[in-house]
Specification:
The protein is of the alpha/beta class. It folds into two domains: 66 residues, Aspartate Aminotransferase, domain 1 (Alpha-Beta Complex); 198 residues, Aspartate Aminotransferase, domain 2 (3-Layer(aba) Sandwich), CATH 3.40.640. The protein has a seven-stranded mixed sheet with strand order 4-14-11-10-7-5-6, with helices on both faces. Strands 1-2-3 form a three-stranded antiparallel sheet, with no helix packed on it. It is globular, with a radius of gyration of 20 Å. Helix 9 packs parallel to helix 10. The protein has ten helices and 14 strands. Helix content is 34%, strand content 17%. The relative contact order is 0.15.
Amino acid sequence: MIQTFERMESNVRSYSRNFPVSFVKGSNATLTDQEGNQYIDFFAGAGALNFGHNHPLIKEAVLEYLQEDNILHALDMFTPAREQLLSTIEAVLLKPRGLSYRVMSCGPTGTNAIEAAMKLARKVKQRSNIIAFSGAFHGMSLGALAASSDSFSRHGAGVPLGNVSFLPYYNAFDDPDLSLRYLEQVLTDDHSGIDKPAAIILETVQAEGGINVAPVSWLKAVRDICDRHDVLMIVDDIQVGVAAAGTSSPLNGRTSCPTWWYCPSPSAGWASLFPCCS
């Protein structure tokens, strides 16, 4: 089987280079290859399978939905399934946190959501610059890649990546307050050389950057700085949301609410993203 992939697919592959086996079954956290070997899947579809492979409850609901010939694709037309989803998001994610956000379905990938966030921020504030942090990863399309700090990934863009300014994340210094003072200085000093941003984008827990968990006090201080300088705060929870960090969201009890909160909604093997826009 692997010979077919080698013969037919392009060289633009990543994970299969490190795992040159063919997986045939998945159950909860276990994958089984063609030879019957079993593996614990810590990858989990890059965060899209937070509830595991073929979770019985999800599988049962999907099969029932298909059996009844329910709507599979309707763009943004109204459907009972869509109403149920929005009501569940409101009841489970928003109301318990006292949030009155609106929901926007951007597309099937995290980078779609980040692209939408950056476009919206620039449109609302009429500014082009975005501030991101060292160690950040927000996606591989051009806009989201511009806000990601990994030099290897950025080099693959093949074009200049601009309109994003990088500042040190909390762990760049021994004292996290130094990064806050730097951020404050950049936004206050008209000789800082950095244009006032439309938004500051951050991960509460950096994943690709090395599993860096931002302190509660630091997150709250960033939100306070955003409020005082008329800058939007975008929280990218796409890789660490929906129980991936041990709770329904890393934001639980950690910080005041972001302006826009981007979180994944894993279900039956695919992830659709629901940015909550105030």
